Amino acid sequence: MNTSRRHIFIWALSALVVLAVAWALYAHWPSMAHKDRPMGMGGRAEPVAAVAVVPQDVPVYIDALGTVTPTQSVTVITQVDGILASVEFKEGQQVRKGQVIARIDDRALKAQLAQAQGVLAHDQAVLSNAQRDLARYRELIKAGSISQQTLDTQISTVAQQLGTVAADQGSVQNLEVQLSYCTITSPVDGIVGLRQIDPGNYVTTASTSAIAVITQMKPATVVFAVPEDYLGAINQARAAGVVSVLAYDRNKQNLLASGQLLALDNQVDTSTGTIKVKAQFDDADHVLFPDQFVNARLKAQTLDQVPVVPTRAIQHGSQGDFVFVVAGNKASLRNVKSGPSMGDVTAILDASVKPGEQVITEGADKLDNGSAIKVVAQ
Questions:
Q1: Cα distance between residue 54 and residue 52, in whole Å
Q2: Region 238-266: what's the mean pLDDT?
Q3: Which residue in 70, 211, 262, 308 has a CA-CA distance of 20 to 30 Å to 288?
Q4: How many CA atoms lie within 13 A of 113 on its CB side?
Q5: Phi and psi of 173, rounded to 5°?
Q6: Where are the transmembrane segments (predicted)?
Q7: What is the predicted pLDDT for the residue at 170?
Q8: Where do the domains of the chain lie, and which CATH numbers do they carry?
Q9: What is the per-residue pLDDT for 277?
């Protein structure tokens, strides 16, 4: 009996200890629950910053990586063989069409031209004498002093001499053209690149080395590829008027030049599903360089007076994007359909928020739908 009573006493004591611990936890539960509850869920108002929704025109851009291409790129090579006598340009210099940029030693060609001109003068004199004889023979044939055969022979002699003079004149013209090639001029307005051949070198028409490369960069063009899905939007923009294109640097921070859409390619690249677009930039001197990579932004359309909110006000969840709207002293959660961004603001494409309403930009991470708030900054 004593053993049974001792066991009962131990069980009863254990039960009392368990009850005491449970009572202590229950007594402290409200304060612990309040401590673990996220801020803004209790009765205390959370301080937030809010900004009013405003209507604004928002441009819609198509972004792509493009390559700067010159309007014209000319590789200057020699058209005659000879010693490069002089180079009359500075590397990177702006040159005009017709400006002399190099000269080739022309002394040998000048000597050949003088010789050809002498042969021409000789043959012209022979021709003149033959023509005078022919005129006399025509008079003599009337008097019967010469035979018809003599007259016919003289007529043939004059014809032969006319051919000789014509060939001499062709030789002289050819040498004059060859001599003009010794003075190399720029065929376009543009910028000369680095010199590739120094004076004193012997240049030939068979050489693949260029004397210089001249690129015409005004106007400059940028070629970029866009997905074929944008063809409809681009064609609609072209039908509405001039389509503007912006060229930014590779970091998309600095605007380099402003231009307009020039042309679309006539076919889609089936391997990539893209189509090439060319834009023209009229005032891009010393800003865009050939083969430079730029970020092209083609303006497809403009959303007229749509509600915009600060981009930082938009939250992202499993159900999509949402914002918190100030509703008196509480936060109201609104699901929104985000559109294109412009600077620090983003367009809202549905009617979830209206101009004049305030959206919370700071402190939203501590809120839930219906949380008590206090706007402390606008």
A1: 6
A2: 89
A3: 211
A4: 13
A5: -65, -40
A6: none
A7: 96
A8: 46-58+305-377 (2.40.420.20), 62-71+215-303 (2.40.30.170), 76-103+191-211 (no CATH), 106-181 (1.10.287)
A9: 93
Separation between Cα atoms, residue 234 and residue 62, nearest integer Å: 9
At a CB cut-off of 8 Å and minimum separation 6, what does 346 contact?
308, 309, 310, 311, 314, 338, 339, 340
Which pLDDT tens digit goes with each residue over 334-378?
Answer: 888 888 887 788 888 887 888 888 888 887 777 888 888 877 766
Contact 65, 276 (CB under 8 A): no
- Spell out the residues 6+ positions from residue 340 whose beta carbon is closer than 8 angstroms to its own: 58, 59, 60, 61, 303, 346, 347
- Return d(Cα 172, Cα 153) in angstroms, integer: 29
- pLDDT for 80-99, tens place per residue? 999 999 999 998 888 999 99
